[in-house]
Here is the input.
Amino acid sequence: MSLTKSKLRVCVVIPAFNESSVIGDVVKDVVKTFKSTPYSTEIVVVNDSSKDNTAAVAKKSGATVINHILNTGAGGATATGLSYAQQNNFDIACTMDADGQHDSKDVVEGVHQIIVRKADLLIGSRLINNQGMSKVKVLGNKGLSLITYVLFGINSTDSQSGLRIYSRTALEQLRWKTSGYEFCSEMLWRAKQIGLKIDEYPIKAIYTDYSRSKGQNNWNAINIVKSLLKRRITEILG
Amino acid sequence: MSRYLLLFLINLPFIFMAILGAVTQYKLHRSTRQKTIARVSLWLIVAIGLALTQPIYEWLFSNKLTQTEPLSLFDVVEITGIVLVFYIANRTRAKVETLEKRIQDLHQELSIKLSDR
Here is the structure.
């Protein structure tokens, strides 16, 4: 990254589906936190065809809203947001969850870290310091990270984390095929395939009753594993 | 003509087309080297299996590992059908995946273009 820190344009992508009750606070918090940084920031909420007024609340809070015509899933919404960041020539993009489980200060720290470490894809790991995370969630996430390692050979402590930071190179080159939650693992695999530098840094996860109710069910891990296996096999068959 | 030879000759065009398709995709940069090697290897295994049907059957029979009848004309048709279905299924899956990707890209672009800033 040759640009100086003060000139960097950062796009914060927040994929959202039926998050009207929290999206306003999440966007306002990100706007407020980034105001005290030297970065030029745009917050983009990708409304994944929500049934509630997520789009209106996000827009009112200061975000650019991209409305999906069809519901595609977290992977599809993230891809749209990152494509927007790439088309609009942002230097760095970040993705974070819409349910308020990520601290916006961790996003800023991630932007700083990706510059310092010269990484292409930086993962905010909730499991380096897993305080506040239930044992079931820790087990589920560690299990999926293990499966990601077995299938794709990628050693990540938190392969399912939604908080990720992308360099310009990653924005231009990184593409994936799955549109559900399994995109988290597939993205790491694709990044490895094209030779991007992957790194991770510790973040804290804020679990509220709301984020717990919205978070992934551990049973969904079975669907994720099935989809990843299918992806791995079809990749071989062409 | 031997039924075993007939089986091999009938299936050869499908195998040839499949291998040709895999190599073409690679040469047009639509497929990776790894994928191409996997696909070509898969079809070569099918070809070798079909070419060696008679010696494999005779070896199994002489070693009392099978007691089935030698290849009948119906078997030839049946095995050809299986190879054909495999070929068509693989092509269809590849086409569906391409279409799925194109629809995803279209949806993504439309969503960005239609969103007011």
In short: Chain B touches chain A at residues 22, 25, 31, 34-36, 38-39, 42, 90, 93-94, 97, 101, 104, 107-112, 114-115, 117 (CB under 8 Å). Chain B has one domain: 3-114.
